[in-house]
Amino acid sequence: MSEERVPRRTLVAYCLPVAPIEAMFWLVVLYQLKFATDVLHVSPAWMGLVFGLARLWDGVLDPVAGYASDRTTSRLGRRRPWIGLAALPLGLAFVAAWSPPRGAGPAATALSVAAGIFAFYTAHAALGIPHASLGAELTPSHHERTRVFGVRAGFAGAGMLAGVAALFLLERAADPRATASAIAAVLGALAAASGIFCAVRLHERPELRGRGGRHPWRVVVDVARNPHARRLLGVFFFTELGVGCLATALPYASEYVLRTPHATSGYLACFLAPTLLSIPLWMRLSRRLGKPRTWLVSSVLSAAGFAAIFLLGPGNAGAIAPLSAAIGLAYGASRVLPLSIQADVIDFDELRSGERKEGAYCAAWDLAQKAAGGLAIALCGALLAASGFAPGAGAALPASAILAIRVSVSLLPAGFLALASALLAGFRLGEVEHGEIRAGLALARGRGEEWSGA
């Protein structure tokens, strides 16, 4: 099968919204709770309830958005109407979450922030699932998909770094409320404009229109019965669980183990920047070793790097930057290859079912990621609670609590990456197998693969 190449202008149009949306999402994850409680003086109990309900709502919306976009039959395609219509509400919701009216009372402020957060998660699902699904449809070519998602990962990495930079500014701002409003306005405008541009500029493969799953429950069953999908979701879940433990425990490790309070954003930058820079390397290596094997190499190296963090303690702050960079370099493949492999798995599903269910698969993927993030917080929190951790104890923190933090930031991520590696070692859908699937699809469709993706 020939390797068709997605035009650069198509790639840029597709990937543009990813950067501001990633920056928005990570800023919500990293700082929204602290901003609401410490700057806006909203009750922590209220914010905990809001975030808990919002994440549940988000979990319900993902499969709904996936199924609905699979079944959309407009003349613009299946994905573009969702992306275009959700872009402006997404930007406005983000602004609302960070900019409640000045002078509003405590109750009005709390309600305004809650409404903004719920609207943000709603618009994020309505845009994010169709957008990820569209990426899987841009090309049927095995390695060209890696290029598509490699470029997408590059934009996502830039967005993450922008979110970390925004966190840095907010933590040091003389007027955090004004700074947050300005950052939210810029990111919201960029997300809205780039999302609308993406929807207007791109085209969709016409032969996929009207090919979504016909029955919601059957769609779920098809995903669950796909042996490649089950294994891939397990690999991704354990990978995200490991990284989630790192992200959750890193602020505690920075303050209580390394004794470098307020350095979390710097450590994250040391991890994310090499991840971003390593993406082209992993893309090239995947052509030589194959996508599953390259991801396996990355996972094993990442697990070793996470385990090495356990050896660090007070006085080793200088070593965390190069070690974080090494882990980031190893982790780069996990930002590129999973979605590329998932697109191949979706082709396998089409060969079996005759339907195109990118939305359903992307929803399952997103749900696995969110479940891993929630479980990571729960695991680290339970470990800290059992260790006798007391907030504000400083140097008086018991040795058991220090050990729990070190385990959470190193051995837990290393163990979960090792589990992901073990699952990945048994994954059996490479270039040869995918070529056979494409040949079977071409035969079933009774045509060649003439669509260029332009």
What are the defining features of this structure?
single chain; 454 residues; mainly alpha; 16 helices; 0% strand; globular; disordered C terminus
Describe the 3D structure.
Helix 3 runs antiparallel to helix 14 (358-387), helix 6 packs antiparallel against helix 10 (264-289) and helix 13 packs parallel to helix 16. 51% of the residues are buried. This protein has 16 helices and no strands. The longest helix is centred in the first third of the chain and has 32 residues, at 106-137. By secondary structure, the chain is an all-alpha fold.
In summary, what is this structure?
The protein has 454 residues and is an all-alpha fold.
Task: Report the average pLDDT across residues.
Answer: 87
Strand content: under 5%
List low-confidence stretches: 448-454
By helix and strand content, what is the structural category? mainly alpha
Alpha-carbon distance between the two ends: 18 Å
Radius of gyration: 22 Å
Q: Tell me the total number of β-strands.
A: 0
What form results from the Cα inertia axes? globular
Biggest beta-sheet profile: none
- How would you describe the oligomerization state of the chains in this entry? single chain
SSE topology string: HHHHHHHHHHHHHHHH
Total number of helices: 16
